[in-house]
Amino acid sequence: MEFYINREHLLKEIDYPARYRSENLIRTAAIIFGVILLFLLSFKPFGVNAPEQKMNYLFICCLHALSPATIIYVYFQTFNHLRTKHLPSKSWTLLREYRQIAVVLLLTGIASFLMRDLIYRNTNNWSLYYLWEEIRNCYVGGIFFYFFLRLAGFYFQSKKGDPFVLQFIPLKCEPKETAPDSVIFIHTQVKQDDFRLDISDLLFARAEGNYVELTTISNNQVNTELKRISLSQFEAQLSAYPQFFRSHRTCLVNMLHIEKVSGNSQGYLLSFSTTESKVPVSRAQLNNFNSRYEQLRNTFTT
Description:
- The protein is of the alpha+beta class and 302 residues long.
- It is built from 7 helices and 11 strands.
- The chain has helices at 7-11, 25-43, 57-86, 94-119, 128-160, 231-236, 286-297; strands at residues 164-165, 183-186, 195-198, 202-208, 211-218, 221-227, 244-248, 251-254, 258-264, 267-272, 279-282.
């Protein structure tokens, strides 16, 4: 079976996560401490040999929960300082995050190994076997907790309506050289108002009463103009082009120009690289938007 890695997803630039910012690290460390402590008390993972323990199991759990929480706090405080001082323009990606988490888990495993002599009566505490076991256990448990906390964070953000950036990979088609088929004739209710439109330049359209406001990009210049046509009539004449999606009652968007998607279960906001304007996706259209995006990913080169 072929193993597939979406490199573009891993290397796409994203905002530096708020959970690692210095002002939020105490809260992040406290959450990690609480979740790990509760898990250790509830399930006793990786086996527990009571006769070897030098102290009460509750204190052992507290030490094992405090260790990663402290390491994450100190590590990212140091990382943030160095990043601000020496790498202020360094971009952040999922791959960079996974690398930092891998280092944190390695340090946590080493710390757990160093604590063994404090916690357990075992003549082999300083053996390579237990060093490997502690590091292995930290990677197994740490990867689980990392993705558990990420999913929990997405869930609570969506429940309380806070917006968050979705992992959206922009759709890109091959650059056009000569594409006469991209220019179409739009018919309006009044023949003299008919007009030609290069659909590859259209970013989005908004309903403005009996008019439609078209926002286009040409030669890196954003333009807007009003046309005497309803949005429904305009949409019907673009029905042969799946990249155009009715995201909202008042909006139609060209999905090939979307750069970033943020939002929650109540709706999305679509951003573009060429303009500060944003286009909403209504709650009722979320599933249709996601389906259309997957369809276009299979059609256009990414």
